[in-house]
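WARN retry 2 of 3 for item q-0093 after timeout on previous attempt; input resubmitted unchanged.
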Amino acid sequence: MLSIPTQSLSAGAVRVEGVLDRDDKVWLEGDPRPAEGVRVSGRLSQAGQGRFYFSGSVSGVVQQECRRCLREVITEIDVESHVLFADAAHVDEDDPDVFPLVLGRSGAEVDLRPAVREEWMVEVPAFALCAAACKGLCTKCGGNLNTGACICARPN
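OK item q-0093 returned
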């Protein structure tokens, strides 16, 4: 469960365990989505009047194409996450590190999904490589230079 009513935090910190599904509505078109979902684990606690603090981890696997040879690259993401949430009265519009609380069925809620998405987007490599020494594709024939000389380089 990644949306926690603030009322449940009045008695103290709560343990958070959940998965942000790859098909969740929080993802935007073009986002590098996780292969199976993003696992979220941590602790959510009150951090003053109208403020809440999440400390934990965000992990998952992303499948991308190597930017040089187009082979599939699987990258494991595992990052520590420290996020602050606040109600509208305590949110500074100029501070991108504070996420607003959302209004749910039972009142204010801490919705971790936007923060998890942001952590994911920061950690996923913009340009994946299958190997640092990847030779890529031939610019003439498109042959994979990692498997040997392409047909352009072979003598006739």
